[in-house]
Amino acid sequence: MEKQQGNLFYIETYGCQMNVADSELVASILVDNGYRQASDIDAADLIIFNTCTVRQHAEDRVIGRISNEMSRKKQKPHLKIGVIGCVAQRLGEKLLEVNAGIDFVLGVDQYKSLPMTLRFLDSWGVKHCSDFNSEQSYEYHSPLRSGKHNAFVTITRGCDNYCSYCIVPYTRGRERSRLASEIVREARQAGEAGFRDITLLGQNVNSYNNRGATFPDLLEMVNDVESIRRIRFITSHPKDLSARLISVMQKSNKVCEHIHLPMQSGNTEILKRMNRGYTARHYWKLIEKLRDAIPNIAITTDVIVGFPGETEEQFDDTMEMMKRLRFDAAFMFKYSVREGTEAAGFENEVPEEIRLERLKKLINLQTGITTEKYQQQTGLTKEVYVEGVSKKSTAELSGKTRDAKVVVFPGDSSLIGSFVNVEITDAIGWTLKGRQLSKE
Ligand code: SF4
Description:
By secondary structure, this protein is α/β, with parallel strands linked by helices. Helix content is about 35%, strand content about 25%. The strands form 6 sheets. Strands 2-1-3-4-5-6 form a 6-stranded parallel sheet, sandwiched between helices.
């Protein structure tokens, strides 16, 4: 139990990897200003909720959670509770109306002002700031990593794409690319601290551009960082994935054979109304180019069914595309309206039961494909980065292949953090089973 009172913070993070990376950044800003990380929420003098608003449900959930935690103030009157992230950005001052107990609300470009906000919280009238600052890229910080083996390095912030269903451009602001030198410094620092697997993060990493350095340039620079063994990146956008990027992926030995490339729909008309900026044919050709260049590449995707106005034929185009492209795995969603987006004003909403029916069909199809693809791994030898003990059995270890598949195999916990060659013996759902051949 920590004895010193007044400067222990705890951050509870919701949503995507960008939010996880932002929490690591906020933690570093606090530590640089004399705060210390609490071992758990009960020990904290300062609780920060880093929130997600991608769907209304996510927003409602976190607002409910914050309200529940307010009762802690009765036992600990000095406790401060703040809200940051996408809900803070979207609702700003309104959050203080929803819950008067919240001490401060800071939007995504305001994290550097956190120490000052905390210092003057009781004397300043203003408890919220969600102004966008398109210059803010949070350079020259060293995130306080929460993972043990995989480090996430933010390369771009914000998004300029305005897909018609997506709230992100309104909560994260305009796209900006961080300095290549800072990204390389962070990657090197993470590698030297023992993180061997680095993921470069952005809403659309492919459009990275800082002072003429493009995403393929950046990948080459990070590939030269000695202490790193594997490089991944999310998320890619099909309209910005260049031939040069495919070539750099092919040549760079540390860039893993996996890409997550959201397709969203297999129908060009729907893609147009989603404002995705590519056709179904362009997407399909891209996948061919990727597989021609890197035959063993694993490709995963995102798909939305039941977008407003989607006909049965247009949905069938998506099904056909899934059969043709045979993704390793897919995250599949039924469309849900997000207030504040362009698509929220679209007519011809697809009835809920049809959206559900289409989602079930798609999931059935993809489950069959994923099962076959995973079964085909049997007999192969894979390099596995051992990340921990398996959740199901303490006698087994769990790790990831270069092509982003989870492998579980019997082994001693001393192997955690090392690279092991594993022969794949079976596939159960989205998990490969194996036996250890050798340790590198
Ligand atoms: S690319 Fe589209 S879906 Fe992705 S964050 Fe930007 S607007 Fe949203």
